[in-house]
Each structure stands twice: as structure tokens, then as C-alpha cells.
Known about the structure:
Elements: E1 3-8, H1 19-26, E2 30-33, H2 41-46, E3 52-53, H3 55-60, H4 64-82, E4 84-89, H5 98-106, E5 113-117, H6 122-130, E6 138-142, E7 156-160, H7 165-175, E8 184-189, E9 198-203, E10 217-221, H8 229-239, H9 261-265, H10 268-288, H11 291-314, H12 320-333, H13 336-339, H14 347-361, H15 377-390, H16 398-417, H17 421-441, H18 446-470, H19 480-493
Parallel strand pairs: 1-4, 1-5, 2-3, 2-4, 6-7
Antiparallel strand pairs: 7-10, 8-9, 8-10
Amino acid sequence: MKTVYLVGLGPGDSQAITIGTLNLLLGLEKIYVRTARHPALEMLDRYRIAYQALDSIYRQAASFEHAYRQMAGLILNAALHYGQVAYLVPGSPSCAERTVEIIRLLAPRAGICCRTLPAVSFVEAMADELALPSGETLLVLDAMQPDRLLDYPDRHLLVMQAYNRQMTSVMKLELLKLYPPEHPVTVVRGASLHKGKIKLVRPLCEIDHLKFIDHLTTFYLPPLVHFGMQDLLRLMRRLRGHGAAPVRSVPLRKRKMPGCSWDMEQNHQTLKPYLLEETYEVLSAIDSGDLSAVCEELGDLLLQIVFHSQIAAENHDFSFHDIVAGLTEKLIRRHPHLFERTTTRSAGEVRQRWQQIKLGEKTGRESCFVFPGGFPALLGAQKLQRQASSVGFDWPEASGAWDKTDEELQELRDAYRDADRAKIAEEMGDVLFALVNLSRFLDVDAEQALISSSRKFYQRLCYVEKLAKDEGKVMADSPLSVLDEWWRRAKRNI
């Protein structure tokens, strides 16, 4: 059967090539190596094993992915022509080798068998060099896939393929979006070599200043944070009495407890007040401008989401992972201008397209509109008006909203003049609704505007209270003229 032997050269030292690999190569006619820039090829030269290096493809290809696909195609075509070929890669073929991934994917379609002859990878060499932990806490990343570099701040990271200073600079700039400039990075060149090995620690912001960086260089980043999302989910299972394993680095008490009695008693209904409370505390923290408080309160809000998802998982309704998957799918679906071929560009066009897609998702309903029950009154009015606007039922410009507000105010005056209590309440509601609509046209959040005005009124009221105390008086006993004077002073100062 036509066969591709996927062979590992080891992390660098030629002694890492296995006897099985040598015996295979001595009996094969066609041998290819991804790159001739590897010290272990000295062993092949010593045994006079002929091979063809594919470095020229790197120089001709438009991108690394294009180069890898060209290499994979060349290897598969060679197997179809010669029957048996060997493809040699640095390290182990099963560890972070994109060309091997492509070959394994396409080979069955061509009727080609793949056989792997593994070797020690750079991971083992680095783990031994730095005494790194094993298991889920250690992760290998490719510098040529920068979109993944920021995904695992709670893990020990080994980053490969930053083979020169330019590539290292690209990697550094991506990491600096999350990691601080002074985050320590251990740089190791030739981890398994007896000669020429270099190991040093530099702050992240300086790693691209090193002159020795090449294809044998690996970068190690210790964790930025102690815990990740999986730790939080594991902890919630433990609190609910459904997790036996301890959270990473936090051992259980010797006397095993089933869980936290309070957490185990909660359900979706009992948690509703906390969800609302934590939401408002986030808004309050944002208004305060204290970013550390915003961080803490967002964590408390996330706890509520994790809490609800764990309860749902116990009831086999849905899980936290269903929430994440559903949200991700929805965001991709609602951003066709990013993920599909479309001409939508402006913010207005994006918003309109978003609403069209959103309406198309509401299948099985008699109406595409949803009454925002449970919302605070102003927020609910804003949401309802946005729904109407999304289908074109709206004033074409702000003048219509102004006129409607004036109309509703006049109707309130008429109801007040007639002393009709029911009509007064109805017209007051219409005035408030019209004002919310006007605020939308003025690009003002009515809820936040009222909160801001209430806070300003509170601060001025406290100022008047202090003025009264400073003069040895009490507000309740002071005449209105004095209160007005104090209030004017408060307005000048606040």
C-alpha cells in the first residue's frame, strides 16, 4: 500500500533520532525534510542517507499556510508516484506540525496510509530544561497562529515557530494586548543541545531584542492569572455538591463535605433578586469610574450566570457550554459583514441588517415584538421603541419627537384642568413615554440621564443640609426663601 512515513527528528540533538527511524530511512529511496536547518540531519549525513529539503517552498509561497499546503501536496504526490516516502520534521510529527495535520487529513482520500515514527519533541526537552508541570496546565502554541496566543492566560505556555526577530516582534505585540510588559519570558535556544544552548529570562517587552533567535528557539510564559474559566465552573459544581475534584491549587478539606448548604438550596427563582442586584452594582461601578470595582462587580455578575447554568445542567436543560456556543453562533450569524461576502459597511447598515437577522430568528411567534416585562419602566420603554424603529415605525427626524412631546404635555394640562384623575395618570404616562422617545432621538440614554439627575439632586440636597447644619438650623424648620437661597448656592457649587 502507498505509504507516507511521518518521522520526527527530535528537538535538535542528532542522538535523539531513534534506531527504528535510522533503519527505516536506510531502506527508503525517497526522503523529504521540511527544513534542512536542523542539527539532527547530521546523523543522516553520517550514514549517507540522501534527502530532499523543502526550504525553497518557504521562499516562494505567499504565506506559511500556503507553503504548508504545497509541502503536503508534494509529499502525497510523491507517495502516489514512488509508493513509499518518508517525511521528516523537527521534533515529533504529532506535536504542533501543521504540514503533518494536512497530510493526515488528505491522505485517506488519496488511498494513502500514514505511519508515524515519533521522536522526542521540543516539549519534553523544554519541560526537562525548565522543570515545567505536565498535564492540562502546560500548553503548546504556534506563534504563526496569533489569534490563539491570548486564550490561555491561566496556563503555562510554550510558544514555538517565532523563528526570527521579526516574527518574535509580531508575537510580542499580540501578547502585550493582555500580558504586562514586565511579564517574565524564559527564552531557550537548543533545549536538547550539548553545545550552543542558550537560556535566559527577559521581560516580554524585550524579547525581540535578542539577536540569537532562530528556528531552535522556544519561549516560555508562566501563567498570568492563577485561575481560569474551567476552575470557576469546577468550583461551582463543587459548591452545588456535584464535583469531587478540587479546584486547581485549592485542596479540599480532609473531611469531605457534599457542598455548600446555601448554594445547594438555590434555584432559578431564588437567584432572580441577586441577578438584578449584581447588574445594578455593575452599572454603579461604571458610573463611579473605579475600574477595579467594575472588574469585581463584573465577576459577581458572571457568578450569577455560572450559577444559573450549573442549576440548568443538573436538570439536563442546558449547560454553560451551551450558552457560550449559542452566543458565539448568534454573533457570527448577526455579523455577516465580517464572516460572509457582503457589502454592508456603515454602522447604520450593520444595525439595520442586525435587526433583520434578529427578526428572522423569531420563528414560531405570532408577533415579532416582545413586551419588555420585568424591565425598569424607562429601560422597557426604550427597548419597545427600538423594536418599533427596527421595522420602520418611527419619526423620520427628531422634530416629530419634539412635536409629539409638546402634544402630550398639552393633553396632560387639559386633563389637569378637568381634574380627571384617571386621565391625568394616563397622560402623565404618555408624556414620560414621549420624553423617552425624544431622548432616543437626542442620543441620550433616558435611564442613565434620570439616574444622573437624581444623583445630582441628591448631592445638592446634601449640600443644602450641610449649609443648614453650619448655621445651626434644620431644613424642616427653615422658610422656603432660605431654602431657595441655599439651593442656588448648591447649584453654583455642584
